[in-house]
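Customer escalation, tier 2.

The customer says the design service returned an amino acid string that "doesn't look like it belongs to this structure." They asked us to rerun it and document both sides in this ticket. The original structure tokens are below, unchanged.
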């Protein structure tokens, strides 16, 4: 670090420590799901992406119709299409399961608020959308776990 005549040796050391901490520290860690959620919601919001398509699959003790995979297409923030791999439209009773990216953030928020016994989320590195979500709602309970996987995410123009 270049020396500046007005900075004492102690001041330079303190400034260097602050700069290193600012550049290297991570305010949220893997043990802070609420912080990670807020950070990635902000990344998503700042990305400006409002039209996109992705494939979502759920793993749960549930009916095949609520597991997918389903291709969800969103234009200007609104779902315009939800289709199973067969091409069949998703019935309205399952439409909320196959939601938008903000809807996936709400699923995570619910798990944080409850709180769920276990929550693991992997977020896209730059856009911030959830790539995978694994929730165990009640410790020791059987068949209450659910996971989501987002694949083939495409920004639409």
């Amino acid at each position: 670090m270049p020396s500046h005549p007005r900075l004492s040796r102690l001041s330079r050391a303190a400034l260097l420590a602050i700069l290193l901490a600012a550049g290297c520290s991570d305010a949220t860690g893997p043990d802070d799901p609420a912080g990670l959620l807020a950070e990635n919601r902000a990344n998503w919001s700042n990305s400006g992406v409002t039209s996109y398509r992705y494939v979502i699959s759920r793993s749960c003790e549930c009916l095949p119709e609520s597991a997918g995979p389903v291709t969800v297409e969103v234009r200007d923030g609104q779902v315009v299409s939800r289709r199973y791999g067969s091409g069949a439209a998703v019935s309205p009773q399952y439409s909320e399961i196959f939601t938008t990216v903000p809807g996936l953030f709400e699923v995570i928020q619910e798990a944080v608020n409850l709180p769920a016994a276990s929550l693991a989320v992997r977020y896209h590195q730059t856009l911030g959308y959830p790539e995978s979500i694994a929730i165990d709602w009640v410790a020791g309970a059987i068949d209450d776990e659910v996971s989501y996987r987002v694949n083939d995410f495409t920004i639409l123009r």
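Tier 2 assessment: The sequence is consistent with the input. The two ends are 46 Å apart (CA to CA). Strands lie at 52-60, 70-75, 78-84, 118-123, 130-136, 145-155. Sent an explanation to the customer and offered a walkthrough call.
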